[in-house]
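Please, structure for the following, as tokens.
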Amino acid sequence: MTGLAINRPCPRCNESTLTIQDNQLQCHAPACDFSSGFDCPICEASLDDINASIEENDLSLMCPGCRNRIGLRKIKYLIENSMVVDYDHRCTLCNGPTIHRASMNLGHRCFFFPKCSGQTDLFGTIRESFVFLDFETTGLEPNHDHIIEVGALKIDEDGYEHIFQELIQPPVSISPKITQITGIDNDMVKHARPIEPVMRQLREFIGSSKLVIHNADFDMLWLLIGLIRHDIPLVDSSVICTLKWARSNGESHASLGALTKKYGIGHANAHRALADAAATRELFFIFDRNPKTPRPILESTHYLAQVKRLLRHSS
């Protein structure tokens, strides 16, 4: 069968990307003979000695140790995203191994997510996709100020994470106050793209996923105004605000900084968009696994009336 391409360079020749061919990672550069087996990410048993080839319509291997079927798309995802499988930090729900991205501000997540989650058990059928979203801006007024950074982290229905992060070149200078808060200065955005193509790409990234935002009353206005001004189709999504959820749970201090400190969530680079989106992701799953109150869900259309008022006043 044709190998499954891995978007990572060969560690030996650095000239070609790798493929998964049967149970081996292989480089197909003419002058390179790199080949390496890989272990089962669930039980660490070697998959080197599997004789049966991968079925064309299955793209998975049966582990001889734990007898779990290992999807090659999962192997591809782990390798491409430098995910670490942790066998000591076990899932509290199913006792499976957890995975995390060591280079980012993200906590451990069950290897079997979303089948194993706070919303579904291992036999559940609910399939959800979430986009955790945050903007950094030149000020607080979405009808007058400008977005300078977008950070979004998506978890799709199969539990794979996708990242969208981009600086945006605003039509005005970034003030020293905003630079002090965010760490973003004018030199950093000098060669960045303008807002329109970034918003179009962000809209495609969101798709029909549920949006999770800390202080959705703020960020949803920026999102919708950015889409309307550039004639981009509006999102039609459910919106979950972790700020409202924290308040309904009785949190005395509901800012993202206070909550990350309380719950031990790593929050390096606070007030950068992707770091804040990642912290919101961690907070969401803490609340979702041990819900004191239900998810506070509003539809994206809820924010349109305010958006239209703001746009009228800015014209």
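The domain at 130-314 is CATH 3.30.420.10 (Nucleotidyltransferase; domain 5). The two ends are 60 Å apart (CA to CA).
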